Amino acid sequence: MExxxxxxxxxxxxxxxxxxxxxxxxxxxxxxxxxERIIRAGLSGKVEILKTDNREDNVSLINTLPxxxxxxxxxxxxxxxxxxxxxxKAHAVISRSWVVGKILxxxxxxxxxxINAEGRLIGWDDTGSHxxxxxxSDDHCQRYxxxxxxxPTALQAIRTTADEVLISERGNIIDARFSKCCGGVTELFxxxxxxxxxxxxxxxxxxxxxxxxxxxxxxRLLLSGVLKDYDLSTPxxxxxxxxxxxxxxxxxxxxxxxxxxxxxxxxxxxxHRGPSKRIDLIRLEGTESCLEIGKELWIRxxxxxxxxxxxxxxxxxxxxxxxxxxxxxxxxxxxxxxxxANMAANGASYEEILKFYYPGAIxxxxxxxx
Length: 370
Fold this sequence. Notes:
By secondary structure, this protein is of the alpha+beta class. The chain has helices spanning 67-78, 85-103, 152-160, 189-192, 216-226, 247-258, 296-302, 337-345, 350-357; strands spanning 2-8, 15-18, 21-29, 37-43, 46-49, 59-66, 113-117, 120-124, 135-136, 164-167, 178-179, 240-246, 265-273, 279-286, 290-294, 313-317, 321-327, 335-336, 362-365. Strands 7-8-15-14-13 form a five-stranded mixed sheet.
């Protein structure tokens, strides 16, 4: 089975042949996030340059390669390959489950939506809008940063779990989502995307992502062995965080990112939260009008120049600015990468990790994927 990956670049792609690989000098990673940067990446398989008028969201290349080769890169790119091997095995299974569902179009919930009305703006960004390729190379889908990132441990994780996927009791490959840190409780699918709940994706309490119980040195060792170097720059690994934002900045973000204006911002009121306390509907009251906005990702964009760590935050009004006290890093749906790594460090097998984060899912080997 092969996959077509849309590769994001900073400007027109800069390519050169290097042995059996195509070397890309300007791959763009973290597009729009606080750790955005440009890296060099070695691409295997077929590399096709897109015409300018066929490009979307900085995608300028299509890389076609075998799924298992793609997954070797994903496991090494999503997490530090020095992480516990059982965690990497778990990640291999969920990454394979998710991407096979994409290729075979097994997840009807995988689409985008928008409600644009007076007084209300609700939307969600998923991967269903991609045209001409199955997934992109960045966090919008799964991180794919080329073959030079592959580590022997990542290879071992992929090959040990070859062809293994998670299925529901009905025999469907599940939509195995994951995020960096749930903040103590995983979130419902409907809080972030369509108003439905896919099989085996539920909200559970997760004590494993709270590393405060660990001695400082043990915590640092776990995080440095799990997170990529640029992820380590996130304060407190995202479990708990605090930031401040000027009300004028929110007004600016509202106008520039969403094309709306409510005048001078007076008040911000969370209207609905999911089980992890992530806000999926918030009300802005201004001098000219009021606006309700959601869902989770759009709220994160509204309250940050790029993306806020999560939408699970409490608000303190400081007059001309707001103090946000938050929990979690990412949407919080499915597997929590920090929590799963801590489980593995404490002796859990990858089967136990998958059972914990995807209740009711069945681990199975599908020879048709070879």
